[in-house]
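Narrative of activities, Objective 1.

The group set out to show that a structural description can be obtained from nothing but a protein's sequence at a throughput compatible with the screening campaign. Below is one input-output pair from the validation batch, recorded exactly as produced.
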Amino acid sequence: METKKKICIGGCLMKKLMLICAPVTSRSGYGDHARDLVRSFIKHDKYDINIIDVNWGSCPRNALDKTKDKNIIDCILPEPKLDRQPDIYVDIRIPNEFQTWGKFNIGITAGIETTAVSSAWIDGCNKMDLVIVPSEHSKKGFLESIYDKIQQAPDGQQQKIGDLKLEKPIEVLFEGADEDIYKSIKTSSLDLVDDIKEDFAFLHVGMWGQGGFGEDRKDISKLVKIFYESFANKKKQPALILKSNGATFSILDREECLDKIKKIKSKFPKDWNLPNVYLLHGSLSTEEMNKLYNHPKVRAMVTLTHGEGYGRPMLEATMVGLPVIASGWSGQIDFLSQSDSLLLGGQLQKVPSSQVWENIIIEDAEWFNVNEQQTYKALNYCFENIDDVEKRSKNLMKINREKFTLNKMTDKLDEIMQKVHIPESPQQVGLNLPKLKKVNNTDTMVDAPKLKLPKLKKATSEAKV
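Output recorded for this entry:
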């Protein structure tokens, strides 16, 4: 019978040393994902966890609660030093930033919002021993992105010598929602929402990115336009609440978001009676977000996103039974269905040049553009037939609370980790990490410090527009 070798000290099983590099303090989608993954690893109780905390663009880095998140805070390295090389290194960032500091190296990335990943991302993933993404959409993007390997011949000519493609194992691990936080509650009050006059509001949750009309990835500008068109001059009108911000939660950022809404509104005739659009700007806790999803005036979520690696807020909304109107393409399709949600048709189009981002969003990639007429009809159908739409959303809530919880994610991660084989090293050596540089306030992701490994011996505010 085959037995597994156990390393013991004083009769106790020695936990594997794990180093995680991730934006665990960041208020961002990657930060949320990283914190849940760390909580899952902690719950496994199999690893001695150490964390290198990095920033995520210019997003605020105050997401950890000193009491509730003490188990994560205690894992953050006060100094960049380990007494030996990590058995497992986990890098939760974008692939061109992946490092290989462990005996076994795992890259976890939200992946791709478009149809193709860059060659730099393929290179980054191929450095790792295992790649984990949150959706079938992301996995497909990595598997189907293939580039020519080019080499310069002695005569100076360029010649193809093979294909550059993903060569390492890739697993799908969904981002589970914490069912103890995101749940249906009988009564919900949130000051900023209590005050709006409408008793029916559509909700959008997402960062308002850069780009002209129709070019920001969440396509918020187009959403506002179609919402105005859908309910202009009607006797009974719903509201639209944008839980949104740009890169920060500053007053300047809020004013820039309001200016964008005003600019769209100004395109309509002044004598038109347009529905109200409210901007809910600033940071909300997870408990406050759950109150927002459950608020009696919030009746449905809507997003015209061009693409998602996963689409976390949409899953959170389904966990409380809130109906979802969404683009019918990309990561959210793993947990949304046409029968129990309103999925919008459309077509793939080339990503606009303003959104091309070196090594991240490539020039030849495509993303999804919703059909505006379908969106118009879906908004009106939801508004006029909310009882039917809510009935279907309750069914989706039951399904997702069974399949897509944080606990189920933790269990699946443990199954994946059981496949990990760590090369044995007869003698451990120390590992000194370079000091982390002070994080600057930029809109781009920053690399963690580069490590030189020793050789191993032998082996909140609200505004209406």
